[in-house]
Design brief:
Belongs to the triosephosphate isomerase family. The protein is α/β, with parallel strands linked by helices. It contains ten helices and eight strands. It has one domain (2-248): Aldolase class I (TIM Barrel). Helix 1 (14-25) packs parallel to helix 2 and helix 5 (104-117) packs across helix 7 (137-149). The structure holds 2-phosphoglycolic acid.
Length: 249
């Protein structure tokens, strides 16, 4: 099974999200070989769940709060997201960490809240360009993993980890992807690190400037179970060929 997860970030408004989800819902692909999940904005989560309800497409949130309910203006809980019919949530996406200042401690709380609510969390980890330049890639990833995973109690719904080097993530489609060789090395190393916390069978996704042209070069790697796609998942013209490439590989 390979996973194609579409992170729409804050690219699409409600009408655009509904339109794109409707088109993706009509795509035909081997659901035994490929699992597709869409991560729209909170505004559109319920509508997208309703649209894909009779399909194999799953829906997730991009972010959840750490408390199930309460006086948290502007926040949406994992419990609400689960009740709305979503099955996944991203946790610790690099834009949450670096634009909104979320710490490893925040990430841990959100991870626990997601598990408690019955969602499958996709823990996102990745080093910055500065980390890379300073030879701190593994140090950064180790810290993110340790704070997130040490002593964590997983639910039946399991856990995914997405390796998204911050320097490879596109801003509107112009990122420099991590080479497949490099991604393969990191993924192999990550699997061992994750297993050291007692977690095996954790699907590992690669994310960062994945598109229709390069998606197969990641999916065919041993140790890469799928991809987390941002900008190239936000239009049908980009996402449909990406799905086709994945299906026909
Ligand atoms: P990108 O984003 O595909 O636009 O690089 C990936 C992500 O941030 O999840």
């Amino acid at each position: 099974m390979k996973y194609i997860f579409a992170n729409w970030k804050m690219y699409l408004d409600n009408e655009e999200s509904i339109a794109l989800a409707s088109k993706i819902a009509e795509e035909e692909y081997d659901t035994n070989a490929l699992r597709v999940a869409i991560f729209p904005t909170m505004l559109s989560l319920s509508a997208v769940v309703d649209l894909v309800t009779d399909t194999e497409i799953a829906v997730g949130a991009q972010h959840v709060a750490w408390s199930p309910a309460g006086a948290y203006t502007g926040a949406v809980s994992a419990t609400f997201v689960h009740a709305a019919g979503a099955s996944y949530t991203l946790v610790g996406h690099s834009e949450r960490r670096h634009v909104f200042g979320e710490t490893n401690a925040d990430v841990r709380q959100r991870l626990e809240a997601a598990i408690e609510a019955g969602l499958t969390p996709i823990l996102c980890v990745g080093e910055t360009q500065q980390d890379l330049d300073e030879g701190k890639r593994k140090y950064r990833l180790q810290r993110q993993l340790q704070k997130a995973l040490e002593g964590l109690k997983l639910g039946e719904q399991g856990l995914f980890v997405a390796y998204e080097p911050v320097w490879a993530i596109s801003k509107g489609g112009n990122g420099v992807p991590c080479t497949p060789e490099d991604a393969a090395d990191v993924h192999q190393w990550l699997a061992v690190e994750i297993a050291s916390y007692g977690f095996t069978d954790v699907p590992l996704l690669y994310g960062g400037s994945v598109n229709a042209q390069n998606v197969v070069s990641y999916l065919e790697l041993e140790g890469v179970d799928g991809v987390l796609v941002g900008s190239a998942s936000c239009t049908y013209e980009k996402f449909s060929p990406l799905l086709t490439a994945a299906v026909t590989m």
